[in-house]
Sequence to fold (550 residues):
Amino acid sequence: MKSHFEFQMNQRVMNGYGAEATQTMIRTFLWFLCLAGTVLAERTTPPNVVFILTDDQSWDSIGFLGGKVHTPRLDRMAKEGMQLTDFNVTSTVCSPSRYSFLTGRYAGRCKAPRFMTEHPPGDQTQVENIGELELEGWNLAKLLQKHGYQTGFVGKSHVVNHHWFHGRWEGTGLESYPVDADPRDPVVNAKMRRNHRRWCEAIKPYGFDYVDGVYAANLKELQNATLNVHNLDWTVSKALQFLEAQKSQGAGTTQAPFFLYFSTTLHHGPAPWANRFSLESDPRFTGEGFVPEGFDVLPSRADVLRRNKDAGFADNKAFALWLDDGVGALIDKVRELGMEQDTLMIFTSDHGSWRHGKATLYDFGLRVPMVLQWPGRIKPGSQYNGLLANIDLAPTILDLCGIQPPKDYVMDGVSFAPQIFGDRSPVREVLFGELGHSRMVKTQDWKYIAVRYPKKLQERIDRGTTFKGFDGATLKRPYLTRNGHLGHYASRKNPHYFESDQLFHLKTDVEEIRNVYERHPLVVQQMKAHLLSALKQFENRPFGEFVPAP
Fold:
């Protein structure tokens, strides 16, 4: 791995000075050499990594970004660490975004069986919640594991075995029960425990030594009304168990570095601001059924509500403080175990949701909070304002860990490790994004979105065929996604949703309300050239007139 710290000796030190001055300069040089050697030694020590990924979290649910919520630990994390102010995801629904975080690849490159069945070679892809990690392919955790890392997975998956999600579980090894079954029933609870363990074992082959506290996808995939509640206490308890195990391998053993992927269900639906689905629910109802002993790893839920109210916020904002407590618990555990100086903490979200930017390529879905903390290594209160994305995280972590990806590991991302340590040069000038029937290129000033339907679908549109929308609506054009619920709200909240060509000047129109496509032909020409260049990376994947179908 290339060092991001360089030291060059000025040859004039040894020429033209008196003996005393020369000796002083030599001592100074040796001191700097020792310092540089120390820094380089530190740089070659692989860090631990704790990656915290939230769900559907926009800026308005974090205090330091201007949200009207109480999040003291996240605010402190930003103050003690580094904020990446223009960090983006390249697809704005759960599965493809998580795929890109864990692989460093655009989700449109997915080769997993279901994705390839839906989109055989030669088809235009419709990137959304059908992508999965490839069992035989590389991902970040699998490569870290190969290089001696202990790897842990806790929380929401949504990146493997999508065919297990539905209620008909025949042939999957999962055991069924009625949707209104009581998890406290010993027979029902035993089934839930076994199902959870089956999910844990299914995730391990993708590069994880420890898997626990798993939600297959969203809470509804548990197929039980009672379990349709968020339980941060449960997932945090599993994460703490993993962290504690990293410090208790026995005297005389060499401590392996670790990577923890911790993914919460907050703030996805069911709406956590309706406290019956979160803070007012029974904390003993978990993703593995009923756990009678409960958990004692976070402040009580009553205490969360009290502190939130004392800070001047309504009860329906307390979910943000609850999540904040969970982040704080992980930071505190790392510190308690004496691993703070050796651990990079990362906090971000799979996509935003404000004004239903989710399931679109608008910035309220693309841009997500991103904070890095590494005491003694990352300058407190620092920021990087350049354009970055989720595909850049895996190569950055591998760079920091001194791991060179094998030649057959396809990655689209670029390491921003130098920027973590103070380099302010741009990592990328243009970012590509994909969602459903739309594609995007973005610079720091401009964004161009193209909506193109596959040939047969476009022919139906041209004939005047109408399409069935959500809740009985009639549409002239279909939603960009298969999910009509997401398409309905995204199209209702974003006035240009169905338009074929969209250009926004991000510096003057942060909410992307004014489509100025017709006013800036030279910018359009340049942005279309960027899009064509990006699309050519995807072999045998047509997209409108940019890459015609074979």
Notes: Residues 1-43 have pLDDT under 50 and may be disordered. The longest strand covers residues 382-389.
